[in-house]
Specification:
six-stranded parallel sheet, alpha/beta, Rossmann fold, 8 helices, 215 residues, single chain
């Protein structure tokens, strides 16, 4: 069984759509015997409509995800960290990132009021693994996984999303961050890549470090 550092009781894997965050979070949880706390995009009834008509469905899509993430955070606040570590594929702090990207001004003001009223005191991760990849790679991965409603996702949207993530994590300092260039890494199908990542996690000493494996 894979062992994460003892200090890593709550680990978050983050990144834009197609970066591989959910696959890696699930794998880390399985190999380390940790609890997996994963988003469920398929449960959002507004998401298919969003990719067809973003202006019409952006607000209900955003609010559904907000409530889903809030429920997960509440589950996390009740978890026994001393009994079992948790691996998640989201942090609540990134929720406004999508809102600023997709909502018009009036919708954004409404969202911000709801977010401010409902946001709980969330646990701070012991480590955030931020996955990066080029827009071309993100598009390829999204197409390859074959989710029907994602076929209309534009390259422009993924580019703007990736840039928003980069700006978010440039300023993020609430927890240690390992920034991973996943362009040439396949953690699910390559045990060597996964082991290299684990070595890098265990070797971390600073609050912001990088892991990049060239082609």
């Amino acid at each position: 069984m894979t062992v994460l550092p003892e200090k890593c009781r709550y680990v978050v894997v983050e990144g834009p759509i197609g970066a591989g965050k959910t696959s890696l979070a699930r794998l880390l949880a399985e190999r380390s015997g940790s609890a997996a706390l994963l988003e469920d995009p398929g449960a959002n009834p507004f998401l298919p409509g969003f990719y067809q008509d973003s202006a019409r469905y952006a607000l209900p899509t955003q609010l559904f995800f907000l409530f889903q993430r809030l429920n997960h955070v509440r589950e996390l606040s009740q978890a026994d960290f001393f009994r079992r570590a948790t691996i998640a594929d989201f942090i609540l702090d990134k929720d406004p990132l999508f809102a600023r990207l997709t909502l018009n001004d009036d919708e954004l003001r409404l969202y911000q009021q709801i977010y401010a009223q409902l946001k709980p005191q969330a646990a701070t991760p012991d480590l955030v693994i931020y996955l990066q990849a080029s827009t071309e790679t993100l598009i390829e991965r999204v197409r390859r996984r074959g989710v029907s409603y994602e076929r209309t996702m534009s390259e422009e949207y993924l580019l703007r999303l990736a840039e928003s993530y980069a700006r978010f994590f440039y300023q993020y300092d609430a927890a240690p961050v390992l920034i991973v260039n996943s362009e040439h890494l396949n953690f699910v199908d390559s045990p060597r890549d996964f082991d290299l990542l684990l070595e890098r996690i265990n070797a971390m000493r600073g609050t912001r470090e990088f892991f990049n494996l060239g082609a």
